[in-house]
Here is the input.
Amino acid sequence: MKAKTPNAIDAYVGDRVRQRRKLLGLSQVSLSASLGITFQQLQKYEKGVNRIGASRLQRISEVLGVPIGFFFDEGDRAVGQHLSPHADEVASFIASKEGLALTRAFIAIEDPNVRRTLLALARSLGSSQTGPEDSESWERMDNLRG
Here is the structure.
């Protein structure tokens, strides 16, 4: 008998829970304790194996300090459609240890001029290792950033 594949929306919501938890520096154990569930149950939610009920999602949003819409916010696309490969790549990077550390460090920079300088440096370093066709990727990243 084949294992059931997680529903795409459940997996997306679970991934958003995981991303927010990591951004806040919470472990699965600490978040699950705040929710009154086991960390194994939280793992199942984050993987999309188990669907998160409405009342539980409300509590998760309170603990993580985001509105419920955060878990469904997919920019200009409808829920249930697949992310572009580039958006998946960005989401995976941000969820990684290095991406999370870089994001936190960048957010901590208060001077907008320093942020722009750092962004220009990152672009030049990225451009030196890739071809000119990746300039479109940078533009898409900027658009995702807002």
Notes: Residues 23 and 100 are 7 Å apart (CA to CA).
